[in-house]
Amino acid sequence: YSPDNVKIVLSANNVLKVSASQQEVGANNNGSVQKECTRQYTLPNWVQPENMKATMSRDGLLTVD
Q: What region holds the SHSP domain (predicted)?
């Protein structure tokens, strides 16, 4: 997934939701493939959301810290 296709949301109850989607069109517009992924994590109460940041490496590894 490219960074433009990834969405990260932290809700008020400390639930971190990471979702991504991407559509690939076949050669000569002959069909397409839609990929989607969603992960959800409940964070501990001691996590300070204002100090969190997300980065994506060149090889597509997403890090949230």
A: 1-65
Cα gap 60→3, rounded to integer Å: 8
Domains of the chain: residue spans and CATH:
3-64 (2.60.40.790)
SS3 call for 30: coil
The answer to whether the beta carbons of residues 54 and 8 sit under 8 Å apart is yes
Report pLDDT digits (tens) over 15-57: 999 999 998 888 777 788 899 999 999 999 998 888 999 999 9
Instruction: Please enumerate in sequence order all residues whose Cβ is within 8 A of that of 18, keeping only pairs 6 or more positions apart, or say none.
Output: 6, 7, 8, 38, 39, 40, 41, 62, 64
